[in-house]
Design brief:
By secondary structure, this protein is of the alpha/beta class. The chain has helices at 4-12, 18-36, 44-51, 96-103, 140-147, 164-170, 204-215, 244-259, 271-277, 280-291, 293-297, 303-312, 317-337, 367-372, 401-417, and strands at residues 39-42, 66-69, 110-112, 153-158, 173-176, 196-201, 230-233, 263-266, 343-347, 376-379, 392-395. It folds into two domains: 4-215, Amidase signature (AS) enzymes (Alpha-Beta Complex), CATH 3.90.1300.10; 230-275 and 322-417, Amidase signature (AS) enzymes (Alpha-Beta Complex), CATH 3.90.1300. It is built from 15 helices and eleven strands.
Length: 418
């Protein structure tokens, strides 16, 4: 994989140029894209021209290539939202985050594959760790492109588990920031109270650097003193749905943290927080029914998504409002848990990537934290019994993204040293 933070340093030190890094990506794309299918649109010639711009090496992203998930509008590349109904769609303007990437000096070689409108129907993308398995979804192409070394950084989106789960399945780092830390203006909305833009990179340091460069926030960990952190292990009421590989990964992470000197203890989630897990679909589906009203009414959806929204139409405004009140109570209660810990540690996915392409896997271990709006990081470094990656998830306090990333980096180092 390409290490974004290291490549940035190499460009700044003039050991590499932005064009050199782009050509590394181009070689990997030429070797693997025909099998992986990570890109919905690709324009390397345009990217090569952009990489020659004067002064690029001195920008925050130093000309590093960044993939953009194909539910995020781009003015110079088509945006099809993962559906044939929008094939050839060319937005007139960039989404806010795309403009942030460009202003920071990032180069955009292409759009990465998404599931249909970032929801249920699996995409054509394959897992580069094993081509017979799903890469997860909905940010399939972004996770796969980073895992295959075709990009050092890529943007994804998460409404349920669409950053954390693909990151776990593909063995990369996925970072879902605090809700609204990255603007969603210009993204195809599914659920306006849940949709969150995140990043994929090889390591925690890479997504932290990328997020810092794109947003201008103090998130980069390059000079940080990553000391022992306090972790509270949360298996949740759904622990019985995690398979042996996921339980083994979490247990290995706990052991590695303890060996590295971290304070690790297990806790049970309060009832108010556990209750919120069941109402995530109420909020997501009610908003999806309204956000995709035009596509539904004009017959632009697959039977799978159309059927899902038809069921969602039965959710009443009263049920939606009550679900939002439940979520608010849970968020207030969640803050209390961080009085005695820096981060929570839990499952990132139910297990290894499923074989075949009938499903992108389950978001059961991600959706609660998406609803809470908290920063989350899927940390790689562990393998399941079949040799496929299994990540573990670090969950932080709302708005404390740097602390969450630091805790994830500590875990990453502990796993590497075990």
């Amino acid at each position: 994989m390409l290490l974004a933070r290291n490549l940035f340093e190499d460009i700044r030190a003039e050991r590499l140029t932005p064009r050199d890094v782009l050509e590394l990506c181009a070689v990997a794309i030429a070797e693997q894209e025909a099998d992986v299918h990570a890109f919905a649109a690709l324009d390397l010639d345009r990217a090569r021209t952009a990489a020659e711009a004067p002064g690029l090496a001195r920008t925050p992203l130093a000309g590093l290539p960044v993939g953009i998930k194909d539910v995020i509008d781009t003015a110079d590349l088509p945006t099809a939202y993962g559906t044939e109904a929008f094939a050839g769609n060319q937005p007139r303007t960039d989404a806010a985050v795309v403009r942030q990437v460009k202003r920071a000096g990032g180069i955009i070689p292409g759009k990465t594959v998404t599931t249909e409108l970032a929801f249920l129907r699996p995409s054509i993308t394959k897992n580069p760790r094993r081509l017979t398995h799903t890469p997860g979804g909905s940010s399939a192409g972004s996770a796969a492109a980073v895992a295959a070394g075709m990009l050092p950084l890529a943007l994804g989106t998460q409404t349920g588990g669409s950053v954390l789960r693909p990151a776990s399945f593909c063995g990369v780092t996925g970072y879902k920031p605090t809700f609204r830390l990255i603007p969603t203006v210009g993204m195809k909305v599914f659920s306006w109270h849940l949709d969150t833009i995140g990043l994929f990179g090889a390591r925690v340091a890479d997504v932290a650097y990328g997020a810092a460069a794109i947003t201008g926030r103090d998130l980069d960990l390059a000079d940080a003193d990553i000391g022992p952190a306090r972790f509270a292990v949360v298996r949740t009421a759904r622990a019985h749905l995690a398979d042996a590989a996921s339980h083994a990964a979490l247990d290995s992470a706990i052991a590695a943290l303890a060996k590295a000197g971290a304070d690790v203890r297990e806790i049970a989630l309060p009832e108010e927080i556990e209750a919120a897990d069941a109402i995530h679909p109420v909020i997501q589906d009610y908003e999806g029914w309204h956000a995709l009203a035009d596509e539904y009414d004009n017959g632009l959806l697959s039977p799978l998504l159309r059927g899902h929204l038809e069921a969602a139409a039965a959710i009443t405004p009263d049920a939606y409002d009550e679900a939002r009140r439940t979520a608010k109570r849970a968020r207030q209660r969640l803050g209390d848990l961080f009085a005695d810990c820096d981060a929570l540690l839990t499952f990132a996915a139910p297990g290894e990537a499923p074989e075949g392409f009938a499903t992108t896997g389950s978001a059961m271990f991600n959706r609660l934290w998406t609803l809470m709006g908290t920063p989350c990081v899927s940390v790689p470094g562990l393998l399941g019994p079949s040799g496929l990656p299994v990540g573990v998830q670090v969950v932080g306090r709302f708005g404390r993204d740097r602390r969450t990333l630091a805790a994830a980096a500590f875990l990453e180092r502990a796993l590497a040293a075990r």
